[in-house]
Amino acid sequence: MASHLLALIVFSTLVSVVFAILLRENGKDRLRFALMTFGAFVLSAVVVGWLMYPFPN
Amino acid sequence: MDRERAIVDERRAGAAIPACLLALLVPGAGHLYLGRITKGLAFLGAIGALFVLGVLMDAGLQMHLGFDDPLAFLRSLAQMALGVPYFLARALGFEAGKVTSVTYEYGNTFTEVGGLLNILVVLDAYDVAVGRKR
């Protein structure tokens, strides 16, 4: 898995699933929580990546 | 009524220790033991996938004990929290990883986070066993 984006998406998906099952009780809440957590992971990583763009070293 | 509740509480407390031990040995096994099949399989699948992918991404699984390098020690503890899969992978020769691999650090992160999540799963198994959670 040499693609950074793919690694990020796979990692975010798996961690979001575990968090959702741990922290929410029913299916609908779990799905919503997992989607929000996944979105937060991916979005924050992309934003931090862009913030670091001017400082490559 | 109080007596019935005491008997139920005693049974639950009795199930908590084996559930936690099983959960620490294999991710999700504690929930499977407690009859929470879907939850247990989901934990096994997700945390198992994190670990397997981490190993495939050339993660280092060295056991670092001692405080000369505290971060490496904590990292080792996190990986060890995966239980049997960690020790099995080491026994099968995946211990060293590949430092020069482009995905080495990703692999480390996947395996370490898998172990840390498993600690939360152990605590959840305890809560389920004593009746705090479903």
Strand fraction of chain B: under 5%
- Total helix count of chain A? 2
| Helicity range of chain A | over 70%
- List the total number of helices of chain B: 6
| Series of secondary-structure elements of chain A, N-terminal to C-terminal | HH
Helix content of chain B: over 70%
Radius of gyration of chain A: 14 Å
How much beta of chain A, percentage-wise? Answer: under 5%
Structural class of chain B: mainly alpha
Strand tally of chain B is 0
From the spread of the alpha carbons, the general shape of chain A counts as elongated
Mind explaining what this structure looks like?
The complex is a heterodimer of chains A (57) and B (134). Chain A has helices spanning 4-23, 27-52. By secondary structure, chain A is mainly alpha-helical. Chain A has a domain at 25-57. Chain A contains two helices and no strands. The mean pLDDT of chain A is 93. By secondary structure, chain B is mainly alpha-helical. Chain B has one domain (2-129). Chain B is built from six helices and no strands. The longest helix of chain B has 26 residues, at 104-129. The two termini of chain B are 22 Å apart. The mean pLDDT of chain B is 90. The interface between A and B is medium-sized, with 12 and 22 residues.
Summarize the SSE layout with pairings.
The complex is a heterodimer of chains A (57) and B (134).
Chain A: H1 4-23, H2 27-52
Helix pairs in contact in A: 1-2
Chain B: H1 2-25, H2 29-33, H3 37-56, H4 70-80, H5 84-91, H6 104-129
Outline:
Chain A has 57 residues and is an all-alpha fold. Chain A has helices at residues 4-23, 27-52.
Highlighted features:
heterodimer; A: about 55 residues; mainly alpha; 2 helices; elongated; B: about 130 residues; 6 helices; about 70% helix
